[in-house]
Amino acid sequence: MITGIKGARVRKAAAAVVTTGAVLTAAALTAAPAQAVTQPTITAKGGFVMNNSTGKGLYTKAADTKLSTGSTTKIMTAKVVLSQSNLNLDAKVTIQKAYSDYVVRNNASQAHLIVGDRVTVRQLLYGLMLPSGCDAAYALADKFGSGSTRDARVKSFLGKMNSTARSLGLTRTHFDSFDGIGNGNNYSTPRDLTKLASNAMKNSTFRSVVNTKSTKQKVTTKSGGYRYYNWTNTNPLLGTYSGAIGVKTGSGPEAKYCLVFAATRNGKTIIGTVLASSTIDNRLADAKKLLNYGFAV
């Protein structure tokens, strides 16, 4: 009898130990941290990614280092144009020989604008941002700068680019060109360019342009007839990365391969920049890695 009671006590004690162990195990499982997302490695010299809604930085690599921007400069070109008061996007600009001479002289990317054609401001923005037309950039700088000569108007437009940078708090950014073909003093940082793009994306026209994969634009010729320009976006993310909505490529001997990028998934927009990737393919891979990381964290 005594032995039976003692055995019962032992069984109860053992059960208590098992129960306690189960509780501890459950607690340990509950407290276990979620699997950490591995921060990616990119080939680019600099990179930055942020949550576009909150402005919170999610990834940095030399994010505040001044680097050549290549044609990502054209984000600011478009921003300045779209910030003009009483802007008429349907106003027509006559294409000058100076614009085509400029791209030929610099062996620059171009929208292949034809001298004498009358092209709207809206169409020039497509020519600027899709094929990365330096001729379109020149036309816009000439149109929206102030002064009695073309050189004066370009200088005025550059002044607007730099004053806009200051007003946006882009303290490590400077432009000495309207298209990224700089004269030694055209630079920004991954963080600054991302902030610039985030601001530019608030404009519906800008968003629409940079999210366009290709376009066919009808323009008026010098003789009063018409022709079509067909432009394809140089941004490799459009159509290859789910949710991609922009923004702009850049390249050059000093800039290497750059990309300012943005994508939206499930209501969350990630925006970022890679500067000085080693190759075109690595630029795309870098951007995809950073977008994936941005959506995962």
Strand and helix map with partners:
Elements: H1 2-31, E1 46-51, E2 57-61, E3 67-68, H2 74-82, E4 92-94, H3 97-106, E5 118-120, H4 121-129, H5 134-144, H6 150-167, E6 187-188, H7 190-200, H8 204-210, E7 214-220, E8 226-232, E9 244-252, E10 256-265, E11 268-277, H9 280-296
Antiparallel strand pairs: 1-2, 1-11, 3-6, 4-5, 7-8, 9-10, 10-11
Helix pairs in contact: 2-5, 2-6, 3-5, 4-5, 4-8, 5-6
Strand content range: 15-25%
Please mark out the parts with pLDDT under 50 across 5 or more consecutive residues, or reply none.
1-32
**Average pLDDT score:** 91
The percent range for helix content is 40-55%
What is Rg?
27 Å
Please, how many helices?
9
Oligomeric composition of the shown chains: single chain
**Class derived from helix and strand content:** alpha+beta
In this structure, how is the largest beta sheet organized? 5 strands, antiparallel
| Strand and helix order | HEEEHEHEHHHEHHEEEEEH
- Order of neighbouring strands in the sheet with most strands: 2-1-11-10-9
How many E strands? 11
The general outline is globular
How far apart are the termini?
A: 63 Å
Structure in words:
The chain has 297 residues and is an alpha+beta fold. It is built from 9 helices and 11 strands. The chain has helices at residues 2-31, 74-82, 97-106, 121-129, 134-144, 150-167, 190-200, 204-210, 280-296, and strands spanning 46-51, 57-61, 67-68, 92-94, 118-120, 187-188, 214-220, 226-232, 244-252, 256-265, 268-277. A 5-stranded antiparallel β-sheet has the order 2-1-11-10-9, sandwiched between helices. A two-stranded antiparallel sheet has the order 3-6. The chain starts with a helix and ends with a helix.
